[in-house]
Amino acid sequence: ATARLVRTELTARGVLPIPRGLGDAAWWGAKLGADQGAALLSGHVNWEGQRGPFDELWRMREGDEVSVVDARGGRWVYRVDGLVTLPKETLPEQAAKWFGQDGPHRLVLVTCGGDYVGGTEGYDENRLVTAKLVTRPTG
Q: How far apart are alpha carbons 43 and 113 in whole angstroms?
């Protein structure tokens, strides 16, 4: 399953807006293959009863590969090296650890899950998957 990445910046309140629907995902932070920092990709787990590509984060395992295709058609392959499920309310205090722009470069994929609380809260958990760059486009 695939989603189109939409370059996104934080709001004045420090919130990362996630595009509506399942076809697009937010991309914030480091570029692909950067020297350091997290490239954060975030998308909805489902939308209007349909499962989205980020639903797969709940079934991923360490060692799985994630491919990101850039605007020029180059393929960046990352290998999953960490998976964690966090209560949504704990994520802000851990944001620097997961999404910081210092430290080694990594891909961080984020979606929601757990129990559906409803309203603006949505789900009560976040699924975070981290991955290290394995191969970059040639040429």
A: 11
